[in-house]
User: Fold these one by one.
Assistant:
Number 1:
Amino acid sequence: MSHCESLFPRRRTRTVRVASVLIGSDHPVSVQSMITAPAENVEAAVAQIVRLADAGAQLVRLAVPTPAAAKALRAVCDRSPVPLVADIHFNARLALAAMEAGAAKIRINPGNIPVADDLYRVIDEAGRRGTAIRIGVNSGSVMPRDRDDARQHAPQEIARRMVDAARSYLDLFERRSFRDIVLSLKGSDVPTTVWAYRHMAEACDYPLHLGITAAGPREEAVLKSAAGLGALLAEGLGDTLRISITGDPVNEVHVGRRLLEVMGLAPLAGVEIISCPTCGRCEVDLTSLAEKLYEATRSIRKPLRVAVMGCVVNGPGEAREADLGVAAGRGFGVFFRHGQTTGEKIPQDQLFERTFDEIRRLTAS
Amino acid sequence: MSHCESLFPRRRTRTVRVASVLIGSDHPVSVQSMITAPAENVEAAVAQIVRLADAGAQLVRLAVPTPAAAKALRAVCDRSPVPLVADIHFNARLALAAMEAGAAKIRINPGNIPVADDLYRVIDEAGRRGTAIRIGVNSGSVMPRDRDDARQHAPQEIARRMVDAARSYLDLFERRSFRDIVLSLKGSDVPTTVWAYRHMAEACDYPLHLGITAAGPREEAVLKSAAGLGALLAEGLGDTLRISITGDPVNEVHVGRRLLEVMGLAPLAGVEIISCPTCGRCEVDLTSLAEKLYEATRSIRKPLRVAVMGCVVNGPGEAREADLGVAAGRGFGVFFRHGQTTGEKIPQDQLFERTFDEIRRLTAS
């Protein structure tokens, strides 16, 4: 086990193979996302999957809501650079068709496949093919329908119901000797989610897929997901994860990857922008420079630490651990490396472009 | 203890009074921030404090780096709507002057007040006045100076040094029978911070002030702070907190407040924007509508849940727990409340303005 992985010792799990990706405590926590394009639009679906894979997604999920989608899935699988997970609801035949088409894993909520024989057919076929299954129980599926009743239910009670549902499904899978299972128990709020995973972790050794179902505006989704998943990862729980964010799913991958990095569960794999809190000494618009560099460098996949400092005097010293520093002064800025400035004065209006160029140069392969 | 507070049972602490604000496990977790204006600019300092208090800050900190700042502090304290915390470095006389000027709490790192008699004078004066003291040990103050050496030090080792330093300072305070102490052990990364607080929590019953020192661009700071502080709060640790973000400190207060809400540690006190993940059914730019409403409503201090849904068919049903819903369809949108649409079709180009107006109407006092 690497140094990184031991900072928050992980709960021991069995390993589940999803084609080339191994999920479980002996392997790095993997990042997933989901495309929004329909499978039938093969070109659009493949293009989105490639973008997610380029951003760092190790697994990509897509909805398979119709026989036409299941049929199109084969062409998508053939061209995907990463294993695909088919999201199936209500229909065992779609699950069988998705496996036939090449899905490396299927995600089902057994609660919406009510006939046991249908479910067993899916399980047995997955067993024959070596296809993994994620059992996904969301809080929505165990919530009372009545709004006032729902508000009275404490997260702990909803979490208990989710775990009870998951355990009853596990019984069905284990009766068929199927154990290539990943479990998710996503709530739409942090306490429900944290308690559901905590209790589930005690009841089995299956790997856990973490997530919070409520997407939301970007900052809200980042805050809620980082708080909930940060809590679980710090307790050693979680073997794969998806961050749900309204909008372009590439953001989900960037945030998921970065969450693992900040938890010390993955090495830095992109550009980290460090910036000092602004203070009275700040002479230029440091915030805007830091924000622009942050957005512009998110897709770079080479590790680099960049410090953006608001003062030419203390900046170089304070940021001596950065690979590249930029200190912004009155009317100009300077670069520094390892605590030493390069000497060149860069006019303020060129500072973003010049810094970005320097970052690209340092991260070019 | 309220329902909210019991979702993640808090570690038992003693209570520390900071003027009207009580810090400890018998009281809600409080939100702090820090102004960037110098105390000498009394008008600017007071204006910034008022903005932070309006946003929900219960305590506000400001730097007191010079005798002139300490002198100006009295006028700032007189006009502040919330208790003020004076940030003191290196100079015991500034700590005495800040207390004299009316600071309700002072924050010091005893490691940079090396003469024990100077420190004792500060402690004894605080005891006489009933002024609380935050002992703040940051990872930077225990890090090896050499860069390569620093990189070899695991977060666990840095955390241990921070706790050892804090414990040795506590000995000095307790020798003077002073116990109105709040402790902070902020690292610049999540693992260091989490381990420092975990170990400190076992060693004393003082309230903990949570934070991660590395500010950064807004999303980076939100992610890192939510992950680290979410982990600690879910373990019951933390009695007051500050989120550090490069830029306007009002953001720090919004994010801090919202973090407590999503952890179930504070009731909803503003507008929550819920939005569905976009999918093939999305017919308008849902992401942009959700983002604009999120930014526009951040300063509202009345609780309201607003669901922004991308489809007119399922939206109302899926968002029936929201106080106000808006479903966006092709060319127009509809409002709905409690799962029922109001019937009116709102042209797409008016949708943001009309929704924002409705939110203001519903949150007007």
Number 2:
Amino acid sequence: MTGVRFDGPACPVPLTDTERVQLGHGSGGKMSARLIRDHFVPLLGNEYLAQQGDGAVLPAGERGELVVSTDSFVVSPLEFPGGNIGALAVHGTVNDVAMMGATPLFITAGFILEEGLPLDVLDRVVATMAAAARAAGVQMVAGDTKVVERGKADGMYINTTGLGMRDPGFRPGPERARPGDVILVSGPLARHGMAIMAVREGLSFETTITSDTACLVPLVAQLRQDIGDHVAALRDPTRGGMASALNEIAQASKVGMELDESAIPVPPDAYAACEMLGLDPLYVANEGVLTAIVRPEHADAALAAMRKHAVGAEARIVGRVVAEHPGYVVLKTLVGGTRIVDMLPGDQLPRIC
Amino acid sequence: MTGVRFDGPACPVPLTDTERVQLGHGSGGKMSARLIRDHFVPLLGNEYLAQQGDGAVLPAGERGELVVSTDSFVVSPLEFPGGNIGALAVHGTVNDVAMMGATPLFITAGFILEEGLPLDVLDRVVATMAAAARAAGVQMVAGDTKVVERGKADGMYINTTGLGMRDPGFRPGPERARPGDVILVSGPLARHGMAIMAVREGLSFETTITSDTACLVPLVAQLRQDIGDHVAALRDPTRGGMASALNEIAQASKVGMELDESAIPVPPDAYAACEMLGLDPLYVANEGVLTAIVRPEHADAALAAMRKHAVGAEARIVGRVVAEHPGYVVLKTLVGGTRIVDMLPGDQLPRIC
């Protein structure tokens, strides 16, 4: 109060950025982690949320464990080379359930539709979801539709929640990596994120970059069958990319990681798009790739297991788990140097999934 | 083509309304039903979605049945007298699970946040969700947060998915009503919808109309304990109100229904607001009321069971199931006439939940 006016501050006190949600809070990086830590965990935290996996494991009697995972999809544009929001909504959630070691069985879908959305777009999205669910072996068991006014939902948003059963003998978890373990990826990185960015930025290349959106359930089933619980950890590096996925495992397991840049597969067109936009492929979202941390004596078998499937045909060993620098991921670069691959503070690419 | 131009129609063909999503598609009335029937069921339909209940019943071994329900919440404004979007997001979903006869155990939450949302609003919403989940006896087991740009999510949207277990000995279902059954409501109608509309329209009354948002789990537990499977059907009349809930049961059970207008409880302030806005309280959303269809010899016990709880203190018998006019709900009006209470074609009140 200045005394000049009596009906409020003479000069409005500006709200600082720390008082409002920012795009970076949706990045999957450090800002996301802080939002969860400061604004959700204190009020909602319990033993389940504390698991911090891609989903939660619930007791389900003698027959195994029930795994549940939820995800909302807000990708822009709704349709892109290689897929659409419906493909992501099914693959994203069944893959999260699979990364917990479970077999996805059921999925629910909540649609928020914007007034004016062309029904043929909705039909294509729903058809894609139906096909993706069939291919993944899940049944869509419950749904909900809401409609909001023009301009309030950018076409449509979709939430899916997946349920699966886990065999107690197969428990990959981010806290189970240990020094000596081998780090594998099932396929080339950065395709999904760069497919979206190429559309948004109007980039064109000799070939169109297509999203890698795919179901990873058969890959996980093969790993379970061939090497079982010698799989220490599984993650699909979506938001925040490979860098964030490995950082989370390194921190949960209190181990270091060393990646070999020369071994990391990035398709030339996605690499070129990253270069143009100044992005690092290790941070770009994938929607059809998994990273597996496996015991060293089973690394070759894991590689062979993944290569039995088209989606894992280009699987590679990309690094190893070490005792040094626990909690940090280090990259041995092409030119022979090393650099720390930290989690991003905020946003690299908004609305990628 | 007119022949005047060769690069397309001389006069652009306008898209008709039937080619785009309209607000009425979110109403819970006939347009919603048509959207589901024409654009979701043909592609996604299976034995679970065919159940058409408030959720789906899944096999879960010998220990009972797993019930799952999903719902997205897009209410505007986010905070209103009597609650906020977080209260609705928990109550809406646990109530849907309870209406299937199950005990809700777990809930997931997917947040879509708009850039610029004040974090103190988020904190109040999350605190309300935490308290509501505790009171309902459910644990929040998985969550997800996405952020979209300013102007793209009207503050925030929340999806919740609820899981519960159902005792095979208690199976209320919309197809189980039969002539002679008695129709009860657990409390006064139209409070939630009119609380929202009073805020939006700037209506003021002697007292503030408050939402009835409440957890109905204890009421269902009491009904199960006191009269068990003599409860034929349960519904919480949210979107589309009591009229839509009863029409759905009448159609699923192929029975008629007779309501007695003089017995239907509507608080004076909500009634006055309905009169002002030209709305029928039977179509206005409730968020803390259930309607139960019970066998006639157990109607008094059902009434007594509901009245044991504060949220059911004003429970009433409001009508009966009849063999005549199957699929139709008929109201005996205050002046002694009768009128058909049909489902609304489209929208009465958008974005009420």
